[in-house]
Predict the 3D structure of the following.
Amino acid sequence: MDEARTGNTALIVIDMISTYDHEDAEQLLPAARKALPAVARLLERARERDVPVIYVNDNFGEWRSHLGEIMETALAGPHADLVEPVRPDDTSLFVVKARHSIFYETPLSHLLNQLGVGHVVLCGQLTEQCVLYSALDAHIRQLEVTIPEDAVAHIHADLADAALRMMERNMGARIASAETARL
């Protein structure tokens, strides 16, 4: 691993700014509500410690979108209560993604390099999709990965459990809680 990247950690919040207007939303909502307090605690801890917070979020197919527009749309929707507690602050960084992995055709690798990040804490949704694929891509990039299991939401609990086991076993990810995750 690049020596310049070994010391710094970044908290990455995946797809938490959402309208929850998609096919599996009803299945996701209970897990999102359950994970929300842990995500909020992670954000608070990271901000207290000046750990970079990076939101990586779907653009919902709106290629002109940006943080302001995505936030405005999510906060105007019926599930604004799931967005408001994890709202980006003025120091947060924001990357738009179009596919499952936070790295796929985004500038995230470059940003992490610039910040000297060698360890990422991934939280958000979906455990069995975006979090899993992002953890794999982080592992491929030789980043240390931590997944706070209480700060990730899923559609299918059985697949989420399997995904957490795969991340731990196959990618060397540390599975922790929001309270014990190293920031």
User: Anything to note?
Assistant: The two ends are 19 Å apart (CA to CA).
